[in-house]
Amino acid sequence: MRVVSMEEQGRKNPFQESFERLRARRWEVSRTSAKERVEKLRKLRRAVVERREALYQAIHADFRKPAAEVETSEMLLVLLELDHAIKHLAKWMKPRKVGTPMLLAGTRSEVRYEAKGVVLIIAPWNYPFQLTLSPLVAAVAAGNCVMVKPSEKTPHTSAFIAQLVRDVFDPSEVTVVEGGAQESQALLELPFDHFFFTGGPRVGRKVMEAAAKHLAGVTLELGGKSPAVVDEHADVKAAAERIAFGKFLNGGQTCVAPDYVLVHASKEEEFLAKVRETLERFYGKTEEARKATPDFCRMVDDAQFARVNGLLERTVASGVRVVTGGVVDASSRYIAPTVLADVKPEAPIMEEEIFGPVLPVLRYQRTEEAIQHIRAGTKPLAMYIFSQDKAAVDRLVSETSAGGTCVNTTVVHLTNADLPFGGIGESGVGNYHGEYGFRTFSHERAVLRQGPIAFLQTFFPPYTDKAKKMQRMASRLFE
Description:
With 479 residues, this protein is of the alpha/beta class. Helices cover 44% and strands 18% of the residues. The strands form five sheets. Strands 10-13-14-9-8-15-16 form a seven-stranded mixed β-sheet, with helices on both faces. Strands 5-4-3-6-7-18 form a six-stranded mixed β-sheet, with helices on both faces. The protein is globular, with a radius of gyration of 26 Å.
């Protein structure tokens, strides 16, 4: 069924007025200096730090995320992004001089970075603060006016962000829209200059379609089944600890979480034993202790609980081995940290990105098998390789594709603001963080300046014999 737009229904878009207010300021904001933009970022930083405790409470109220995880995976990453932009923004904004070919002797060329204009950021629920504020930092640094849409699945955090933005920014520069799917649909009908979306491929396609209607730029941060490979040369203890951390952080609701593990058959049982020991150390030795720990968060809502639990039930019924976990409680949306062994590629848990605390482990015999399995799926947002063999690592990197890759660790690559963060194919379009985020929200404008000496008139008509001879001579310089 085709969705009928508000324009077709003859109704006014509820956010048209807010959009026009942003558009009225976009040229003034785009001409601000590095000093002015840095001051805005510093004001935002001060406000974030002052409200640390309130942020802990908001995210805990939404899905019982521990304060320590809020600090490291939400607060810290935003502060790193702010500090990096504050330190380097003046340099990023400077026009970049480029070379001059012989044919254009007498000219000077440069690339200037100009704001795209009015941009839309639609944020997800899994890291509701970090994945809203990090792109906002980049958009503000680039001199844009911004409309921000936090996720309705985390209403307490959404309200926190809305108040934070109201207190820091003029509403004609940055505005927050709260609400659900209906509000998002209304926003997608407006002619933003750039659409930035973090979420799943299904909605990502709708965002890309909306951007196409306006011939606007688009950045899609999506996800996918990110593999971890543990080969016969791996440090198994370190692999087990780091994979468990990356997988069960945030209750498994992480776009770059290791979605499944491909382990060499010679290391399988050792790996499973070490993962089980790690989970006992992280969250408690018994199922009762793990359920009671304050260090493990819950599924964000009933729909997410039902989806992940359904995948788990179908997979267990298919005959896989439950190494640890498998316990659930619908009343608290709890799914225990779970590890599954003897998993086949056709198992239900392998049908889609899990986005929950269930880790399937598949064994392989030859590196070619692991490579072919990864290639057979969609391109993942992340890939993790555990091996002490450099040649094996290089082969896995060169013969697969992923948005980003870590060797002998997981998930921490996104904390380096000097690395681009983004996907490829089904896992995303474009990237951001640090200077990459500044460029995402900027237009690279080519500027050529003609000096007093110019040879262009050589190519003016009429095309006399002399002119033709000069043109041929110019061409032959490049033969």
